[in-house]
Recover the amino acids of this structure.
């Protein structure tokens, strides 16, 4: 993708360096921290303007924790975060004022993201008026235009959330977010709970919004096939760490990390001659992590070297965290 | 209704659903949820029932066990025959005999299907409470745990559900459902809540068990790729009706109904080279709000006036049946 | 804003379908509204009076004795006026309310010793000070209901505020406030009422004030729980990530959704208020005499057991009111039952 080369020249909308979100486990009489659950352990990623970046991983890999940390809902243990080149963390607390509402988050469950007691008008107008994005007299027009942008008729603004389906509710959440004219939208599994045909509609919508508004997206998901249709670049996460990254098509057609490859091969396809390949074993729990590479207990290529944590090997815009990356 | 022709031997049919129409009694009338659903399942076969949320597939699967939606569910028409017996003519005692023993079911959310306060071992033993058996229950439980790949018996039997992962719980659910050697296993979205790597493990397990026990499986899902990989035959449901029914291989080569076609194109898969997916415009109509004519007309790109007025009855085309004028 | 969202409408509709609760609500409300017009139903002053061809409206206006041929400027005594010759001969007339008695007027001229048994004139007899029982019950009902409604309103307000702050902020704030509440709730409220009543006068407002100091505690537990639960919901998280202020989140996001316990507890708060006031009046620590009050009537009834109409009529009224309120409360609880929701 042509964006890949340009992105390294422009200031990224958001850049994360070595982010760690650790949850302390307190034990004993005095609640001393005995160890940490390292849900996000040294993650670095970046999103360039207008780019759609996907963060994939299975449940429990820490991707939602990362999303929540970037949204400022979880305390960060360590790391750096830059918005448009400006540091946004001070003493490991997110300074939301640096974002100036230009970074918006949309969550997974459409049924709990909208206040059931508010009409769509109220839901959309509160942030617009509170942050003085527009004047009171202009609000109604603004809301009508937002609704149209997400493909909903403006007279829906008088209705309550319960009269909408999951997909429609997500559209309303998206409308709420784009009202702030963001540079970046963090989408935390926003289509995972929707029907498959609706997922397709949402992907179309996001692509259109990117085209119209120049919006960048950090799309957190677990569905590789969906990510293929949507994102330019891809990060694969496993047990709190990024294990591979690169251009989406490249990574999906020529995965280099054994986990990425296993993930791709496990997805059922329509080709009955290619049954999914089983990856044995289970994801180790965070409190029981293996020493060294976190994938070793399931990796078909493991060796003694893997008892040490592999660093990230970077080559031509692709990164792999493995001592034995899969060759083509 | 047209007479149904049975190409396959009727004698092999383990489960036969005919014209099943289920509704809900409400204060303002009866709300129909399914409309003349008909399909059959042969012994040793995996039948896939695919459709999106609200199409009625879960209701149909529960009806097979004689369970109607609460409150107010009624059987408007049709019948379900399992091994020759009419399900809805059985008493509650008769149904209880059937459930768990002859027909077993596993659900989507393994966490929700288990009692969080009771240990796994005790929950598995509960299965035997209503179905007295004369073999060694404990040994059977252990054997089945082995079969599903959980070898650390003691730890698992002593654990509570929240201490185990989703994949492990789903395996335990499968083991529980097989304790009484059922002839039919209904799997309602068994892997939707699981990661894709675990999904592959679980589906593989189900297929293997099916082969070993010569069991039949009714697989319900919204994932067409899953159907493609694991089913022998497939039925597509939309808005309470079966709109297409065929052998899976033939279906994949040539989906006949526009909805099936739409589904295939709307779902992204990794093996497709093109990136674009084509969505189906519009939304599923609510139950009870269908006008006459084809239920898919408002979203179908081929819709004509004929589709607006006449509900298409199934046309027979080789082994595939589909509900469309075209 | 959506107090009348579809969910609320559903609940209201479910409530109406519970016949017992709905009719109880209608009856109790009707009685209460009726009692608000007690002066028009039950009064010894006439609605309209014609004296020497001039019309007077004594209920609505003050007329001195002198107007009607008396000597002084104090208010005319319509009871004696009724009996006097001026009105007996038909030239002057007055139209009296259906129950022509005042709860404060002692009919000392009645034959026999008070309390007098029910008669044609006094439907429920008189009490130990020869005052009409029916009038006292009616006016007492009004005072009872007003008291408990105002009490419920004030304690609801405090309950929401304090419970809400506890639930929303959690942590240290919650812990400290909880300990304070525990200490506060261990105070014996009866003693406090007696003390305060002795130091200051035992007026309606003082009693409400003192009782409301304690009544909010129960609701605050529920509100704390509701707020604790709601603040973890996604729409609150979204509001936070959009940089909305704490007060916006508390009042506009959480509060409209946390009102369920308020409504379900309200009937029981009212019952509690009625019970509290009646108990205090019974013990003599409540409203000052000669304020009509059920509790006071009950205590009279106890002292005059050979005049059963006192105790029986009061008990029946009390029982009926509490029963109606209980039906309403049960109906509300059932209507709000989340399991009954069709969603």
């Amino acid at each position: 993708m042509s964006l890949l080369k340009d992105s390294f020249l422009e200031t990224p909308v958001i850049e994360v360096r070595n982010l760690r979100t650790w949850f302390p486990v307190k034990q004993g009489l005095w609640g001393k921290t005995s160890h940490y659950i390292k849900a996000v352990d040294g993650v670095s990623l970046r999103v360039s303007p207008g780019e759609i970046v996907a963060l994939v991983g299975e449940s429990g890999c820490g991707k939602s924790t990362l999303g929540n940390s970037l949204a400022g809902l979880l305390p960060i243990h360590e790391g750096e975060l830059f918005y448009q080149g400006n540091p946004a963390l001070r003493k490991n607390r997110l300074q939301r004022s640096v974002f100036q509402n230009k970074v918006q988050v949309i969550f997974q469950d459409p049924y709990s993201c909208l206040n059931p007691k508010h009409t769509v008008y109220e839901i959309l107008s509160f942030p617009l008026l509170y942050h003085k994005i527009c004047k009171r007299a202009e609000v109604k027009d603004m809301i009508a235009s937002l609704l149209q942008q997400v493909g909903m008729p403006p007279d829906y603004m008088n209705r309550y959330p319960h009269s909408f389906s999951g997909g429609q509710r997500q559209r309303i959440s998206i409308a709420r977010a784009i009202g702030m004219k963001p540079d970046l939208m963090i989408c935390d599994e926003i289509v995972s709970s929707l029907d498959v045909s609706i997922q397709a509609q949402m992907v179309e919508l996001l692509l259109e919004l990117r085209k119209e508004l120049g919006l960048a997206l950090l799309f957190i998901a677990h569905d590789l096939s969906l990510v293929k249709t949507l994102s330019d670049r891809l990060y694969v996460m496993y047990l709190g760490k990024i294990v591979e990254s690169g251009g989406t098509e490249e990574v999906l057609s020529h995965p280099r990390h054994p986990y990425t490859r296993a993930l791709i091969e496990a997805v059922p396809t329509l080709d009955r001659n290619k049954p999914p390949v089983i990856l044995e074993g289970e994801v180790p729990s965070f409190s029981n992590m293996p020493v060294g590479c976190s994938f070793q207990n399931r990796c078909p290529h493991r060796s003694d070297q893997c008892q040490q944590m592999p660093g990230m090997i970077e080559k031509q815009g692709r990164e792999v965290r493995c001592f034995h990356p899969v060759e083509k | 209704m047209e007479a149904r022709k049975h190409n396959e031997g009727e004698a092999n049919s383990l489960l036969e659903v005919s014209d099943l129409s289920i509704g809900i009694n409400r204060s303002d009338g009866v709300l129909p949820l399914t409309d003349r659903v008909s399909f059959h399942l042969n012994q040793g076969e995996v039948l896939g029932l695919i459709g999106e949320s609200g199409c009625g597939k879960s209701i149909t699967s529960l009806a097979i066990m004689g369970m109607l939606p609460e409150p107010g569910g009624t059987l408007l028409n049709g019948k379900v025959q399992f091994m020759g017996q009419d399900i809805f003519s059985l008493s509650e005692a008769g149904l209880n005999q059937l459930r768990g023993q002859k027909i077993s079911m596993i659900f989507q959310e393994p966490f929700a299907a288990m009692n969080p306060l009771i240990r796994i071992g005790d929950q598995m033993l509960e299965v035997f409470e209503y179905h007295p058996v004369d073999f060694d229950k404990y040994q059977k439980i252990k054997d089945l745990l082995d079969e599903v790949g959980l070898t650390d018996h003691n730890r698992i039997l002593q654990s509570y559900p929240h201490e185990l992962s989703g994949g492990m719980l789903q395996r335990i659910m499968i083991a529980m459902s097989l304790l009484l050697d059922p002839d039919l296993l209904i799997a309602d979205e068994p892997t939707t809540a699981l990661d894709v790597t675990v999904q592959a493990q679980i589906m593989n397990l189900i297929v293997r068990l099916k082969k070993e026990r010569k069991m039949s499986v009714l697989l319900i899902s919204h994932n067409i790729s899953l159907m493609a990989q694991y089913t022998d035959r497939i039925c597509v449901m939309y808005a309470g009706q079966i709109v297409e029914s065929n052998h899976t291989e033939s279906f994949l080569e040539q989906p006949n109904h526009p909805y099936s076609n739409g589904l295939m194109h709307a779902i992204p898969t990794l093996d497709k080279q093109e990136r674009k997916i084509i969505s189906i415009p519009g939304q599923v109509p609510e139950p009870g709000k269908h006008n006459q004519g084809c239920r898919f007309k408002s979203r179908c790109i081929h819709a004509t006036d004929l589709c607006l007025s006449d509900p298409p009855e199934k046309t027979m085309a080789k082994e595939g049946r589909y509900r469309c004028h075209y | 804003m959506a107090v009348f969202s579809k969910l609320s409408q559903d609940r209201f509709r479910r409530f109406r379908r519970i016949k017992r609760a709905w009719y109880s609500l209608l009856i109790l409300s009707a009685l209460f509204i009726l009692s608000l017009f007690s002066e028009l139903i039950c009064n010894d002053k006439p609605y309209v009076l014609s004296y020497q061809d001039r019309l007077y409206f004594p209920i609505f206006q003050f007329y001195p004795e002198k107007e009607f041929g008396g000597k002084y400027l104090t208010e005319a005594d319509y009871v004696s006026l009724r009996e006097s010759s001026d009105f007996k001969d038909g030239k002057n007339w007055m139209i009296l309310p259906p129950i022509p008695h005042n709860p404060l007027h002692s009919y000392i001229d009645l034959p026999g010793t008070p309390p007098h048994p029910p008669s044609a004139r006094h439907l429920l007899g008189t009490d130990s000070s020869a005052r009409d029982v029916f009038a006292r019950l009616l006016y007492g009902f009004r005072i009872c209901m007003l008291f408990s409604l105002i009490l419920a309103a004030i304690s609801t307000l405090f309950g929401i505020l304090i419970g809400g702050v506890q639930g929303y902020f959690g942590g240290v704030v919650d812990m400290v406030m909880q300990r304070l509440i525990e200490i506060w709730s261990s105070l014996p409220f009866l003693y406090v009422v007696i003390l305060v009543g002795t130091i200051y006068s035992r007026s309606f407002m003082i009693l409400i004030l003192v009782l409301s100091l304690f009544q909010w505690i129960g609701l605050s537990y529920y509100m704390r729980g509701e707020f604790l639960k709601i603040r973890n919901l996604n729409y609150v998280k979204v509001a936070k990530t959009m940089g909305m202020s704490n007060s916006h989140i508390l009042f506009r996001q959480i509060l409209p959704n946390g009102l369920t316990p308020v409504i379900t507890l309200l009937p029981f708060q009212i019952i509690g208020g009625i019970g509290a006031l009646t108990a205090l009046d019974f013990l003599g620590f409540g409203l000052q005499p000669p304020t009509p009050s059920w509790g006071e009537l009950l205590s009279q009834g106890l002292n005059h057991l050979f005049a059963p109409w006192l105790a029986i009529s009061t008990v029946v009224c009390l029982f009926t009111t509490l029963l109606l309120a209980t039906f309403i409360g049960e109906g509300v609880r059932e209507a709000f039952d989340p399991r009954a929701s069709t969603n």
Notes: Chain B has a mean pLDDT of 80.
